[in-house]
């Protein structure tokens, strides 16, 4: 059964989107050193694989 999306869930989603977008943009212009890019990528992939609650 689908539950309505809570405000907290929507804020978490918005934060993930902003983090992903920022990391991608900084990587494109070369501001993030390689270790930071790898860490940001790992966080993005781990969050994407988390089951929705």
Architecture overview:
- With 53 residues, the chain is an all-alpha fold.
- The protein has a domain at 20-46.
- It has helices at 7-29, 34-48.
- α1 runs antiparallel to α2.
- It is elongated, with a radius of gyration of 14 Å.
- The relative contact order is 0.12.
Based on the model shown, name its key terms.
2 helices
Termini gap: 12 Å
The proportion of strand residues reads under 5%
Number of strands: 0
The total count of helices amounts to 2
| Overall 3D form | elongated
Helix content: over 70%
What oligomeric assembly is this protein in? single chain
User: From the alpha-carbon coordinates, what is the Rg to the nearest angstrom?
Assistant: 14 Å
Structural class, by secondary structure, is mainly alpha
Main sheet record: none
The pLDDT mean sits at 78
The gist of it:
With 53 residues, the protein is mainly alpha-helical. Helix content is 72%, strand content 0%.
Q: What is the topology?
A:
Layout: H1 7-29, H2 34-48
Helix pairs in contact: 1-2
């Amino acid at each position: 059964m689908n539950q309505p999306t809570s405000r907290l869930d929507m804020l978490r989603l918005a934060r993930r989107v902003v983090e992903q977008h920022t990391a991608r943009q900084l990587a494109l212009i070369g501001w993030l050193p390689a270790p930071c890019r790898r860490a940001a990528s790992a966080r993005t992939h781990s969050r994407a694989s988390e089951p929705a609650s």
